[in-house]
Specification:
Helix content is about 70%, strand content about 0%. The chain is built from five helices and no strands. The radius of gyration is 19 Å and the shape is elongated. The longest helix has 27 residues. The protein starts with a helix and ends with a helix. The relative contact order is 0.07. By secondary structure, it is mainly alpha-helical.
Length: about 90
């Protein structure tokens, strides 16, 4: 059993690591917010073709669609900074 689990974990790691690493590196470059950042740097003007290219590259990398992103519930971390700020006992 242990060998099968190890093999499955290695296979999962080998399959997923390149994509996950690429997404992590893209997110370090602002990920989907890159368009907003570049527009702000240019005073709010960003050519449509440039924005489309940035958006397409990220969508292709993550293999995400708008429908998928909008159909998922938001992730919430309980006991986060907001809770601590409103509860002085924390």
């Amino acid at each position: 059993m242990h060998t099968r689990r190890s093999t499955a974990l290695r296979r999962c790691d080998t399959t997923r690591r390149p994509t996950v690493n690429a997404i992590v590196l893209a997110n370090r470059e602002l990920g989907p917010e890159k368009i907003i950042a570049r527009a702000a740097e240019r005073g709010g003007v960003l050519p449509v073709d440039e924005a489309t290219e940035m958006s397409s590259d990220y969508k292709e990398l993550t293999r995400a669609t708008v429908a998928q992103a909008n159909s998922r519930t938001s992730w919430t971390v309980s006991g986060g900074a907001t809770d601590a700020a409103t509860d002085p006992a924390r």
